[in-house]
Amino acid sequence: MTQPVANPPLVHVVSLGVGERALLRAEAQEALRRADLIIGSERQLQTVASYPSQARTEPLPSPFSDLLELLRDDSGQEIALLASGDALFFGVGNWLNRHLPASQLRFYPQISSVQAACHEVGLDEHDMQTISLHGRPFASLRAQLRNRRSYALLTDQHSSPYAIASALQAWGMADSTLWVCEQLGYPEQRLRKFSVAELLANPPDVHALHVTLLQTAGPGGVLPEFPGIADQDFHTDGEPGKGMLSKREVRLCILSLLQPCADDIGWDVGAGCGGVAVEWARWNPRGQVYAIERHEERLRQLHRNREHFGVVRNLHIAAGRAPGALTDLPRPSVVFIGGSDGEMDTLLRYCWEQLPPGGRLVASAVTEDSKNRLLQFQTRLQDGDAEWTQVAVSRGETLAGQLLMRPQLPVTLVKFSKRTSFS
């Protein structure tokens, strides 16, 4: 554990906005004047060169984690840390707040690159969602885009306007419009508007310092936009929509019982091909879902579905047999047991012990033996709540030109809400 610093420096986080020369408020100018040390990239240091200061300067450390060593010394000096755009909008501010106490930090605001881009193009910012792809898997964009919406995309070399246009074409949003806003606030500033077709036909050279604004449009129908993903959209270990996959109606009932919350950690034990885990992760992007599966082919399909639906940032896959495969995972607040591999009693006990007060455990059963084990578990709970539901679905098929409602196997679902420990 890091020891507290006896006389920590005061860190002035000075946002620079956009442009060749920073237009700083009086308070930020005073922070620079008082600073003993100014830290920033070469470009950032140039933007404040006209402001009076006797401070020495140092380049922004690489790797970035080395910055903490400078900010944790015990000299009691004052440090000005320069930040492009707005430090508290997808900037260094969030990282600093996680690593340093609030008493050590002072923030000085400026406009962000997204604000500047919206004003240059004339797009409303209030209903625009900002997505950062910087240092993040490009596939994560699949889980975030919706049709007929506005987005600001903060990108890197792997998420160029051409790559975005290619994805939009594949995802049923080929009528979208993109604005590429380069070197905002500099004499070389350039604003260009593209259709998807134009970008694909003539991929442009784009300066590294840019923001992409996007208004999605098109027939859609490729990416799900509401809970209840069609079974046939999943990759499975059987025919499309078949195999080891919780069917849509059952899946939605499971999720309604789990009631995932933002920042929940969830386990999907016996995840199969990932029907529940994928929906869970897609519609609760701030939660973290751990899918546990031991079957090799189902694991392969689980990985494919994770990529296909773009839940690469918050769906984690653990290969192995439970409960052994659970021991190294973060403790959950919500658990679903969809497959027990003959270990239902052990899994119920182990998962229940891991849950905090208020945690939820949902288990499914098809056989009478599994139902009996769930009932036995309920009888051993002290003041625990159990909610039983049976889902019986019939789906329409055509046989000899006639509509036939073919019943599926009924699935029993039990939700246990934790009040006290297992005994």
Describe the overall structure.
- The strands form four sheets. Strands 13-12-11-14-15-19-16 form a seven-stranded mixed beta sheet, with helices on both faces. Strands 3-2-4-1-5 form a five-stranded parallel beta sheet, sandwiched between helices. A five-stranded mixed beta sheet has the order 6-7-10-8-9.
- The longest helix is centred in the last third of the chain and has 13 residues, at 296-308.
- The protein is of the alpha/beta class and 423 residues long.
- The chain contains twelve helices and 19 strands.
- β17 (394-399) and β18 (402-407) form a beta hairpin.
- The two termini are 35 Å apart.
Main CATH class of the largest domain? Alpha Beta
Distance between the termini: 35 Å
CATH architecture of the largest domain: 3-Layer(aba) Sandwich
- Indicate the structural class: alpha/beta
Q: Care to count the β-strands?
A: 19
CATH H-level superfamily title of the largest domain: Vaccinia Virus protein VP39
- The proportion of strand residues reads 15-25%
Strand order of the largest sheet: 13-12-11-14-15-19-16
What is the helix content? 25-40%
According to CATH, what is the topology of the largest domain? Rossmann fold
The number of domains is: 3
Largest sheet: 7 strands, mixed
Let me know the average pLDDT.
Answer: 93
Low-confidence stretches: none
Apparent shape: flat
Radius of gyration: 27 Å
Counting H and I runs of at least 4 residues, what is the number of helices? 12
